[in-house]
Design a protein that fits this description.
Blueprint (H helix, E strand, L loop, with lengths): L3 E4 L11 H10 L8 H6 L11 E2 L2 E2 L20 E3 L6 E5 L5 E8 L4 E5 L28 E8 L2 E8 L3 E3 L7 E3 L9 H44 L2 H7 L4 H7 L3 H7 L8 E4 L3 E7 L5 E7 L4 H15 L9 E5 L6 E5 L6 H6 L8 H21 L4 E2 L8 E3 L5 E3 L6 E2 L7 E2 L11 H6 L1 E2 L1 H17 L14 H10 L9 H6 L3 H12 L10 H17 L7 H17 L1
Antiparallel strand pairs: 1-7, 2-3, 4-5, 5-6, 6-7, 8-9, 10-11, 12-13, 13-14, 14-16, 15-16, 17-20, 18-19, 21-22
Length: 565
């Protein structure tokens, strides 16, 4: 019976080995272990070019080989296959010519098993150190590690695949990625490791998330403070400091507005233009509001925003939109105003999908707009010039009551001066030509713009885009046909049907408001009183008793009285 001896580089191994077996055992420890036979069979075990990897029933992995250039250059890696035997025998010959049979080379156990020859006391050292360059000497796989081994002062080294890989570490790409749960007795330990690791990771995740949230909140707070300063928050607080109750309720937080608009959901959009978007929302106070959010950051627009906030915070009039507050914690400030449900005067006059306003409603709208402007010019502590009076800025509520809006361009005018020299601002078609040519802003600039609105109410034509056959704008064409007695050529047919003599009266008033010379125009107080009297005459009596000439004389007389006052 043939006796076999299996050699391993471990403390249990004895020294009574032949030089061949000892040297072979030390160097064979370079081999890496693999998981099982199926995985080992699938992975390459020898060099790819004409290198046989088996002899009989024994596998021959590299660095061993049975043909030239199929093994490492040391002689003990060169094996021979005796094919004359049945089954073929794998043989190794030592330096003395002693031949032994190799019955197994185990990648799993990192062992070489021999049979049929004795043991001796001679020893031979292996390589002294691990190679520094794993790709140049023995460990050729990228996913491998070299480890030194020492037995009885004889030092060698082994190459092993890294965790999660298995195969032949001496071959390029010899270490293959594996599923560790397919390895015997590995998955349970892996599960325990994952459980412990998961607990640690969960702890780190909780701590990391808490820290990250804190950092984000701190950063948001700093950003909001920076935006508050950038948006002139200190200036706003100073300007309204005399009215503590207003300033306290007027500065709104971003969280409040995000909650009011469901994070500025697109379904809450009321409309917008090139400069921004308006959202509908509900504050915690249950007030339904319109929130104006600019799209871009322009310093001039931020200045106008603060200007509007300051002006609206000091105004309380039923025909002027009410300010609920503002938010300065975002890159562009947010204005929160009373929500007006029925759109603008412009929409009701020029949108074909809407039912046109009756003449009675148009006259009342003119009266209420005049009241709002007269209040700004005459009844506040420091007069305010709106500077952008036009039908898109005249809002209408459910009862078609006027709410004058958009005070971004408005300016204070001290009572001891007659006007301001400033950069020209307004809307083409409504803009005072005297102000446009001189840059000198007075309350009569609002009067001119209001006169254009009156003409718009009478004609239902757009001041911005209207051109007559002769190329005249709306104001010039209106004044021309009025002076020629052909007013019916330009009036809205509905006005002709529903109106009476008061139509001519208001036409005359509009013509005086749009005089080129500002001194020829009445004040808004005179315009308000004139419209009030016309409106009252329609309500309680007929205005037919008053002729066109008498109305013109009345207006001029009131204007002169106002100027001399």
């Amino acid at each position: 019976m043939r006796r076999y001896q299996c050699l391993k580089p471990s403390p249990s191994s004895t020294a009574s080995l032949t030089p061949v077996t000892l040297a072979a055992a030390l160097v064979v420890c370079l081999l890496v272990s693999v998981a099982d036979a199926a995985e080992a069979a699938a992975a390459p075990i020898g060099l790819p070019t004409n290198c046989p990897t088996s002899c009989g029933n024994v596998s021959v992995p590299y660095p061993f080989g049975m043909a030239p250039r199929c093994h490492l250059p040391q002689p003990w890696f060169s094996l021979a296959c005796n094919t004359s035997s049945e089954p073929p025998l794998l043989l190794l010959t030592d330096s003395r010519g002693v031949t032994g049979q190799v019955v197994d080379i185990s990648l799993v156990e990192s062992t070489v098993c021999f049979g049929g020859f004795r043991t001796a006391n001679e020893t031979r050292a292996g390589d002294a150190t691990c190679p520094q360059d794993l790709g140049s000497t023995s460990c050729h796989s990228k996913q491998s590690t070299c480890r030194a081994t020492t037995r009885r002062n004889i030092t060698g080294y082994v190459c092993r695949c890294d965790d999660g890989y298995q195969g032949n570490a001496y071959l390029t790409d010899g270490c293959q990625d594996v599923d560790e749960c397919e390895l015997p007795n590995k998955c349970f330990g892996l599960i325990i490791g994952l459980g412990v690791g998961s607990g640690v990771m969960l702890l780190f995740l909780v701590l990391g998330t808490t820290f990250l949230i804190h950092r984000i909140m701190t950063r948001k707070k700093r950003m909001r403070q920076r935006f508050f300063m950038q948006n002139h928050g200190q200036l706003l607080l100073k300007l309204v400091s005399q009215m503590a109750d207003i300033s306290e309720r007027m500065i709104l937080t971003l969280e409040e507005l995000e909650k009011a608009t469901n994070n500025f959901d697109k379904t809450r959009e009321l409309g917008g233009g090139g400069h921004g978007t308006v959202y509908k929302g509900m504050l915690s106070s249950l007030h339904v509001v319109a929130i104006k959010k600019a799209k871009i950051v322009i310093q001039r627009e931020i200045d106008e925003f603060i200007n509007e906030v300051v002006i609206l915070s000091q105004i309380n009039h039923r025909n002027i939109v009410k300010l609920h507050g503002c938010c300065l914690e975002t890159e562009v400030p947010l204005l929160v105003c009373q929500f007006i449900s029925n759109g603008t005067l412009y929409n009701h006059l020029h949108d074909e999908a809407l039912v046109s306003l009756s003449w009675k409603d148009r006259l009342r709208i003119a009266v209420e707009t005049a009241r709002a402007l007269a209040y700004l010019h005459s009844l506040v502590s420091v007069p305010i010039i709106h500077r952008d009076v036009k039908s898109p800025n005249i809002l209408l509520d459910d009862n078609f009551t006027v709410k004058l809006s958009d005070f971004g361009a408005s300016r204070y005018v001290p009572t001891d001066v007659t006007g301001l020299d400033t950069s020209v601002q307004g809307t083409f078609g409504y803009l005072d030509p005297m102000y446009h040519s001189t840059g000198h802003l007075t309350d009569k600039s609002d009067v001119y713009s209001f006169g254009v609105v009156l003409i718009e109410l009478l004609t239902r034509k757009k001041p911005v885009s209207y051109r007559s056959c002769q190329g005249y704008g709306l104001v010039n064409h209106f004044s021309t046909v009025l002076s020629e007695g052909n007013l019916f050529h330009i009036l809205d047919p509905q006005v002709l049907r529903e109106g009476g003599g008061e139509v001519v009266d208001i036409s005359l008033l509009a013509a005086i408001c749009v005089k080129f010379e500002s001194n020829d125009r009445p004040t808004m107080r005179v315009v308000e009183m004139t419209l009030e009297s016309i409106h009252a005459a329609i309500e309680y009596a007929s205005s037919d008793d008053m002729t066109d000439e008498s109305m013109d004389n009345y207006i001029r007389g009131e204007m002169m009285n106002d100027m001399s006052a």
